[in-house]
């Protein structure tokens, strides 16, 4: 900034003031309605600290001997569910993402169909997908894998389509002018530009799926969540603490792994 630069202070116009007031008023109304809708029982808040202390007392000391006989196998299954579910999502998201990219597929009805699929996948929570597929395939890892796959399509497909739409049109125009077939245009023009983003999306989604795979087991979709649900129902708090610690450790290791790989790719 040069020494001669002079800042000129100017008040908001009446229209800008009304717009700001409307936004703040909307937030205040929404907050008031939310507070009035949520039923808070004061009696439960008064002794919340006592309940927390009692729970922590029950969770300590941890039953570390339970890990090899009841947790390890379920944790490995959770990682398998996350990995296979992510691969399933990638398989489905690539064609849907291409169909949703306006610069590749120039048929509006196909673009809208792709966006409908992507929105539908993201709008349904993982636990709802898990309940649905548990009802179809029964409890176990298969339901969890399909749940993770369908839940991840919207995330991966949307980001992949946006990456395709942001590509430089120069190489594509050159290949088109040279008479290259569509598959060559995609592999030589589009893919080199979106490959780093694609693999980054893949790793990031796998990291998220590791966390979600631990949760969907609470409704019977396999993995460590089923072990956690059993321990909670039987009030084995010393085992619950070991399970939670195991989940935390795996999530931290997955985060470090994904971060290092993404640095090498992007």
Give the SSE layout.
Layout: H1 14-37, H2 42-46, H3 48-58, H4 66-100, H5 108-123, H6 126-137, H7 141-165, H8 169-177, H9 182-216, H10 224-233, H11 237-265
What CATH calls the topology of the largest domain is: MetI-like fold
Mean pLDDT: 84
| Total count of strands | 0
Helicity, in percent?
over 70%
Alpha-beta classification? mainly alpha
**Distance N to C terminus:** 33 Å
Please count the helical segments: 11
In short:
This protein has 266 residues and is mainly alpha-helical.
Question: Key features?
Answer:
0% strand, single chain, mainly alpha, extended, 79% helix
Explain what the structure shows.
This protein has 266 residues and is mostly helical. The chain has helices spanning 14-37, 42-46, 48-58, 66-100, 108-123, 126-137, 141-165, 169-177, 182-216, 224-233, 237-265. The chain has two domains: 14-58, no CATH class; 66-265, Orthogonal Bundle (MetI-like fold), CATH 1.10.3720. Helices cover 79% and strands 0% of the residues. Helix 5 (108-123) crosses helix 7 (141-165), helix 6 (126-137) packs across helix 7 (141-165) and helix 9 packs antiparallel against helix 11 (237-265). The chain is extended, with a radius of gyration of 25 Å.
């Amino acid at each position: 900034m040069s020494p001669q630069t002079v800042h000129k202070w100017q008040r908001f116009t009446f229209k800008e003031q009304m717009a700001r007031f409307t936004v703040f008023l909307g937030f205040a109304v929404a907050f008031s309605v939310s507070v009035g809708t949520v039923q808070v029982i004061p009696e439960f808040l008064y002794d919340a600290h006592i309940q927390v202390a009692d729970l922590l007392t029950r969770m300590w000391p941890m039953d570390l001997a339970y890990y090899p006989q009841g947790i390890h196998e379920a944790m490995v299954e959770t990682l398998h569910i996350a990995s296979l579910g992510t691969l399933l999502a990638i398989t489905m998201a690539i064609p849907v993402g291409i169909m949703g990219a306006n610069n590749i597929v120039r048929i509006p009805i196909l673009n809208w169909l792709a966006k409908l699929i992507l929105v539908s996948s993201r709008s349904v929570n993982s636990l709802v997908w898990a309940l649905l597929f548990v009802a179809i395939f029964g409890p176990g890892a298969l339901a969890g894998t399909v749940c993770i796959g369908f839940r991840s399509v919207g995330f991966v497909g949307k980001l992949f389509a946006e990456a395709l739409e942001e590509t430089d049109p120069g190489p594509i125009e050159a290949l088109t002018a040279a008479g290259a077939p569509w598959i060559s245009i995609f592999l030589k023009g589009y893919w080199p530009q979106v490959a780093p983003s694609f693999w980054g999306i893949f790793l990031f989604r796998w990291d998220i799926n590791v966390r979600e795979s631990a949760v969907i087991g609470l409704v019977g979709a396999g993995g460590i969540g089923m072990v956690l649900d059993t321990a909670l129902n039987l009030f084995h708090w010393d085992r619950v603490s070991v399970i939670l610690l195991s989940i935390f450790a795996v999530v931290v290791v997955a985060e470090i792994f994904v971060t290092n790989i993404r640095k090498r790719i992007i």
